[in-house]
Amino acid sequence: MTDDTIAIGRPTGGTFAFARGLLDFERYGLVYVWLLLILAFSLFVPSFFRLSTFQIILGSQATQIIVTLAVVVALLGGEFDLSVANVVAVAGTATVTLNTDFGWPIGITLVAVLAAAIAFGALNAFVSVAVGVPSIITTLGSGTLLMGLSTGWAGSAPRGGVDGGFVALASAPIFGLPLSIYTTFAIGIALYYVLEHTPLGRAFVFAGQNAEVARLAGIRVDRLRAASLVWSAVFSALAGILLVGITGASVPAVASGYLLPAFAGAFLGSTVIRPGRFNVPGVFVAIYFLVTGVTGLQLLGYTGWVNDVFYGASLVIAVLLTQIVARRRRNRALAGG
Amino acid sequence: MTDDTIAIGRPTGGTFAFARGLLDFERYGLVYVWLLLILAFSLFVPSFFRLSTFQIILGSQATQIIVTLAVVVALLGGEFDLSVANVVAVAGTATVTLNTDFGWPIGITLVAVLAAAIAFGALNAFVSVAVGVPSIITTLGSGTLLMGLSTGWAGSAPRGGVDGGFVALASAPIFGLPLSIYTTFAIGIALYYVLEHTPLGRAFVFAGQNAEVARLAGIRVDRLRAASLVWSAVFSALAGILLVGITGASVPAVASGYLLPAFAGAFLGSTVIRPGRFNVPGVFVAIYFLVTGVTGLQLLGYTGWVNDVFYGASLVIAVLLTQIVARRRRNRALAGG
Amino acid sequence: MTAAGLAVDHGAGGTPALRLAGATMAFGGVTVLRDAAIGIGRGEIRALVGKNGSGKSTLIKILSGYHRPQPGAVLEIAGRSYEFPIRPERLRAAGLSFIHQDLGLVPEASVLDNVLVGRFAGGRVAPIGWRGERERVRRVLARFELDVPLDRPVRLLSPVERAFVAIARGFIDAEAQGGVLVLDEPTAFLPQEDVGRLFQAIRGLAASGQAILYVSHRLDEILDLTHTVTVLRDGNIVHDDVTANLTEDQLVRHILGEDVRTFYPALAAAKAEPALAVDGLSGRGVADVSFALKKGEILGVSGLAGAGWETLPYLLSGATPARAGTIRTEAGRTDAAALRPDRARRLGIALLPADRQKASGAQALSLRENASLPVLGRYFRRGLMRRGAERAATAELLRNFQVRPAIPEAPLRTLSGGNQQKLLLGKWIQTKPGVLVLHEPTQGVDVGSKQDIFRKIEEIAASGVAVILASAESEDLARLCHRVLVLRRGAVAGILEGDQLSETAINDLSFRGHGAGGAAGGTQ
Amino acid sequence: DDAATARAAAEAAKIVEAHRGTPEFWAPPAFDSTPARGKTVWWISDYKTNILKQWALQGETAAAEAGLKFHLYDGGGSVPEQVRGFELAIAAKADAIVLGTGYPAVAFTAQVAQAKAAGIPVFSINSHPLGPDAPPRVDGHVADISYDYPAAGRLLADWFVADSGGKGHVLLVDITGLPSAGWTLDGFRAETKRLGVPVTISEAATSLGPSVQTDLANLAGTSLLRDPSIGYIIPPFDDFALFIQTGLSQAGASGAKVKTAGFNAVLTQVGNLKRGGTQLAIDLGGPNQWFSYAVIDNVLRVLSGQPAIHDYRIGYKVFDHENTQSIDATREVATDWYGVDYGARFKELWGAK
Ligand SMILES: Nc1ncnc2c1ncn2[C@@H]1O[C@H](COP(=O)(O)OP(=O)(O)OP(=O)(O)O)[C@@H](O)[C@H]1O
Ligand SMILES: Nc1ncnc2c1ncn2[C@@H]1O[C@H](COP(=O)(O)OP(=O)(O)OP(=O)(O)O)[C@@H](O)[C@H]1O
Ligand SMILES: [Mg+2]
Ligand SMILES: [Mg+2]
């Protein structure tokens, strides 16, 4: 298999670089598949091509994207964080419980929840980085532990009654979209900026790729690994808080639903924009691609298992397509050279 | 960290090697923790130290261990198989449906189900290995797809009515343990033998550790990766079939319960016997360690969140302990050397 | 010994053991090997030489079935012809065995697995006869006087031990199959005294009728060991001759395509200001080492394998924790035991490690990302990474250090071994350190580039940087350094300078008390 | 025609009104429970599902009142864990086993048979249609204690018909993998048919899995896009209605005019009703205390040698914004919520002197 010998003779720079760049199927393949899907739905599904559809598609993924970014941050740091979904759940439970049972004002509650998330992330970091337990075990264990403690403390029932102003704020519409989705985009952009446009972010990505080289270059790799776990916990907690804002309630039982889609989004996202590397824009593309398909099907009246079939099939086929096309173009380039 | 930058003069071989080997806390740490746990429960939990308790502890993990071995086979091949739990569920559903609705004899049914599992594994292998889609996406997608198709075909309700002889066989007691658990041990031993003591198995493990280098060393890495996904599907299907034998019914909803414990078992298992490597005996130790704790607590009457807390905490603490002890010993050896 | 005395069986007389013709290979449109042809007869030791990136490893990877050449390539092994693409195990069955550049070992796997996986005796699922297999590995390793526990992961071995493990694998294949053994820069990781043992083994194989293809940048080795030479330049075969017909100068001319005499740059005098003071440094394999270094001074560090000189660079730069001692530079003073790489960098100490596979670069990242890692802050202005500036600086660096191809966005893994080494040297020199610690900086680098690197080292020293050059190449050290520190059994055996400094003096000091060539190849 | 529709809507409204107060307790025959005293019942639960845990904990109280020893076993959602629960119970020589995970007995055919062989009767909850011969029959399974789900569906339909004047458009969402959802929706459809009103019924489904929350929320939004005339969404349980509410609030203005309702009267939703301001219009509740006592009553009966009861005729109450104002919505207390102390009523039946 010599196909990974990409790109070295590829001319860079030049006037047409930008246009040629957009035609780069390897980088933008999934984007095109997504656009095609939108086009197809727009043509064949009567109620699809409407502002309200796009508002729903955009707005409904606020929390899922944040959780996926949490997973990506951990993965970039070379860590597997399986506790994200539990943190979402417990952050939600804690927000509602502190705000209602304990009567803490919502501001203090949120600060407390985020502080607890930092502490939890630091615990993961201590066990994984300082002691050296693989993070996949650490977070599987600590996530289960956290969930158990939370259930013992506040029960497993859905709880409502959180500060009405907070709920109103989270769903306050700006240009037809709830504030929550702007939060998600703000987090995404900030993360993109840090990862791509600051020395810290670059060092972080490098350390995730080859820790030893980064260490010898004087980068405190352990700190960055620890930070990745802390930030992953913080992002997850933010998602949990946001979810309370959106639903007005905490629902501990369903948090587990966030885990697999988050990993699917992270890995699917790593096949676009920066193929082979976890990246922030890729996450957005991946998650919106998947939800677009499901939404279109629902508009066509397909629900239930058909949705599962579509979700599964599109996940596989989308990546399959981009890979095959990218490979064919590469081979053609090879033959031409 | 830095411990591996330089060859260190750790003494090996010698007459006391075996005894010293048993004291090797890094390799057997979890085993000791487990024995301690058994001792503590035996002393403090009245109904614990009984033959029937051990029979139940041993017998109840037949399917979970097989699924965990499926995950381990995939991981050894360098692949993440997230479809194992779905395959368990669908294999069960298919077994019951074919045997009852379609009236196929149980023998033919089982052959058909295993053949379908091979086909499914081959599909995963094609997409992941031949085309190059990361297996974590492939299997997440194909697993969801499979589950959706199965629901469309046979519904999602639990179904009974499977061949009584088959159920009787699966639970036929031999020395007080059901046949199913012997099946599990047989699979475990066969897998252990192949992985550790045959050229094929060694090549498999080697290729999983570093595919690129293994390819340079002349090993057909792609075949082995493909095989890992096929075997993972086959093992999962076996677990599904066995579960039908154990319960006499298929329960499509079982799927979700198997996935995380399987990964927990695989990774916890990789901290014992062969630390740092996924290994078969480690899986047995890990799964039995976890179920021992949970059973003891249940006998004490603790349920619900206490179980989660134990499960989570013991996962973290067991690994933490063995790591810390092992590290201390290593440092002492270093300082002495 | 030269080809003259040997019965080399190739050409018209018998069928050659190996014949490759019409091999062309391109990566992403760039042809790196053009219509290459090579033949080796039984008992022949053929050298394959050329500049970095000239296509040697590519040719070898075609032979091993790793790369697939463009249509038209012809391969014959012992008279039988094979169609490309060929599966690696078929080539192995046909009698080809390999020792790849950068060794091709799995670090986590044990010595035993690394040597034997894919070559166990018996069927694929037949039980492995552990006793016999262990014995087999132990026997080959013993031939190189290597005694390492077979279950130890390769990552815990020293570079020398690792090299021999890779060599052992090649020899096991060669002895089992007979045919052709291909060695791609096997001596890059080996100190002088171990090279002798390797050569003895290679000659033994050749004498028994094996064909050998040998790649190296060390011309003395080529002249000493091989019967015939094939020279690659920019992907073309430019010369094919009997080694005995060539002088070293002629060989250099064929390789570089120009007339270059081996030269060492003139040394500027060291400055008076102290740059580094090491006091009582102890750590893995090193006990109580003290020395001082002035600005602009080049200090060689050498000794026998395992004598401690290989760990000194890592102790000095905090990569391996020390047990005791103090280190002082212009920027400050620190306890060696508390030194970590980030601290070392703040003290102005930079390290170029020898271990390219593990410790030098992130293979999947671009040349730009690899090169700018230690100096990211330079490109961060007004809240943004100036990627344009970064790219320009990288391009400049690539040009300066003659890295080819000079494409900043290409992934590091697409560079040939020697070009990677040049890039990484450039990466550290651009940080303008106070003390530059180099471990085998010219390992795997062609003769032309080697001189360029020496010139660079001399330049940077002249600009006031203190350089520590840890190497087993005593000739280079003798010519390039102001002083050479020789370690023996972890302690300072002596420091040579001025008239005392010569290649023989370094070797004498290294060996004194051991008896020539007798030292073990392992760790302390 | 309009007159008939109005009449039907009025009839439905009357039925709903009749259920806004205290449900009448149906007392099964009294019996002497002394033979069962001191016997042990194992209750296999799944704490991951809140309502299952709530029933189990109420069952624990009921067992204490009934003089039964009670062993609570949490099998989570995992089938092998629940198998182990059966095995531990059989090994511990339990006198009765309650499969309280919502799975029908058929899911554990072999274990139920083993229990029978050991002389242990097995009960299940809310997983079979009502009646002694409810399928699927499994040897060793004595009885399923269940709410009357079709009846709950009928009541929800009555509310929908009454609220929409017999002309509304409702989206029924089936939850596959949860049979009681289907039974409830069957009741709903049957009632609209019986009333003969020109309502519009749309159907959708989603599967009971980890992503049910997001699935339902998305479904709510997209259904409205597809057909803006939908005015009601019935999921059909109120904890799923919570996710429908999320979707409706994400849908903005188009979601604001849609009402939802469901069965179970879980704490959160009753709280939401009391506060008002959500899309939840009513919540249909069946007293959880009544239910759990009924389970223990049946166990006690069978262990005392009495015939099992197959329908406890558990009553329902419709909660809305008005009638929740007077109750404590921070915890469920039967007397406060429904006006009856069911525990006391059951104790009277058990001859507890
Ligand atoms: N995987 C790859 N993808 C793209 N280009 C490659 C790849 N491998 C090698 N090359 C290019 O092919 C050319 C020849 O490389 P090769 O490794 O054969 O050189 P070499 O003669 O072995 O050099 P050295 O002496 O440095 O080892 C180089 O320009 C290198 O950059
Ligand atoms: N690490 C990278 N690898 C590959 N492509 C990248 C990378 N970083 C950025 N790009 C892409 O390169 C393109 C050029 O943007 P970039 O900001 O790097 O160039 P620039 O404007 O020349 O730099 P600057 O103005 O910051 O000095 C963008 O489309 C960006 O997405
Ligand atoms: Mg090379
Ligand atoms: Mg820019």
TrEMBL record, chains A, B:
GO terms for molecular function: transmembrane transporter activity. GO terms for cellular component: plasma membrane. The keyword Phosphoprotein does not apply. Keywords: Cell membrane, Membrane, Transmembrane, Transmembrane helix. It is a multi-pass membrane protein. InterPro entries: ABC_transp_permease. It comes from the Bacteria. Its main location: membrane. It is found in: Cell membrane. The chain crosses the membrane at residues 31-49, 56-76, 102-123, 130-154, 174-195, 229-249, 255-273, 280-303, 309-326. PANTHER family: ABC TRANSPORTER PERMEASE PROTEIN YPHD-RELATED-RELATED (PTHR32196). This is ABC transporter permease. It comes from Kaistia nematophila. The lineage of its organism: Bacteria, Pseudomonadati, Pseudomonadota, Alphaproteobacteria, Hyphomicrobiales.
UniProtKB/TrEMBL annotation, chain C:
InterPro entries: AAA+_ATPase, ABC_carbohydrate_import_ATPase, ABC_transporter-like_ATP-bd, ABC_transporter-like_CS, P-loop_NTPase. Residues 18-259, 270-514 form the ABC transporter domain. PROSITE patterns: ABC_TRANSPORTER_1 (PS00211), ABC_TRANSPORTER_2 (PS50893). It comes from Kaistia nematophila. Keywords: ATP-binding, Cell membrane, Membrane, Nucleotide-binding, Repeat, Sugar transport, Translocase, Transport. Belongs to the ABC transporter superfamily. The keyword rRNA processing does not apply. SMART domains: AAA. It holds the Pfam family ABC_tran. This is Sugar ABC transporter ATP-binding protein. SUPFAM superfamilies: P-loop containing nucleoside triphosphate hydrolases. GO terms for molecular function: ATP binding; ATP hydrolysis activity.
